[in-house]
Amino acid sequence: MSEDTMVAALLREREGLVQRGLVDRVAQVDEQLRLRGATPPADGRSGSGAPSTRSTPPKGRRARKTETT
Q1: pLDDT digits over 12-29, tens only?
Q2: pTM of the model
Q3: Residue 29's closest CA among 9, 5, 1, 51?
């Protein structure tokens, strides 16, 4: 696995961990990113806050049609 692929995987993992609020695990992923020469995102999502919540439903979803007989 190349470094770029590993960094991309770590960044995806980090995003999920931030959303779940796993502060200790985010710090471990940040350490692995630094060891690979990447800078962890400085977007204020260090995992110290509450997990993010979705305020709008995903796009492309349709409600089920009601059955009419």
Answers
A1: 999 999 999 999 999 999
A2: 0.58
A3: 9
